[in-house]
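Checklist before submission:
- one chain only
- standard amino acids only
- sequence pasted in full

Submission:
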Amino acid sequence: MASFDAAILRTAGVEITQHLWASEISAELAQDSRSPEDLLSKYREDYHSWIVIIKQDSIAKVKTMNRKDVSDADVPSSQLASWLRGEIRERDQREGTYHRTRLTRNPSQADSNNHMPSKQEQEVHVLVAGTKSKKSNRRNIVEQAQSRAKDLVQSFLDGPVAAVETTDIVLEKIRETKLSDPESWRRVMQSVGTGERRYIGEIHELMGELRAKNDGITRNAFVYNFRTGTCVYYDLGA
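Returned file contents:
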């Protein structure tokens, strides 16, 4: 989400980005840029399907990346979310990801073309000890294991999320750090440019604050990269 007018970027840009998030569309605000060339040079190494440039007349100019056969489109800002959803659906079908998306949807949803429920039980492998002290009901073990696993995953959602802006390479390095090991954070700082080291330090401080705030509550946390849409798990207690 970009604009060559800094004021528009920080007002309409923020509003439209939040609307896209609410529509479950991954989006991020671009850095201040003076021209299309300046904008593209800053994100040359990042993969984006579309670049949206907001104009003063509430019209968004959408540039489709990596496809020379598609012309730029002028879309009213109010219709941008629905327009992008259609483009995303077409892209997924073209790239063969549509079928995989359907298979990984909410298991409680039924297939509109099939009356059979699509929910699939989690696979449980039961390993019984070689003693004969008591008999075990295999069905009960499976149901209890599935229930406890579900409860554990649900408890992870209580953890806080830190939303940051960086590359996925740096995000992966942050995931491997430990708050109990300051040296691991120093290694991340040394791996980035001078201008980004201060930001990494701020992320370090934020994670420390989350650990202190959630002490005795949870050690589960997540770091979300709103530049790329990637989210990783982070262990506050490590």
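Reviewer check: The chain has two domains: 6-99, 161-235.
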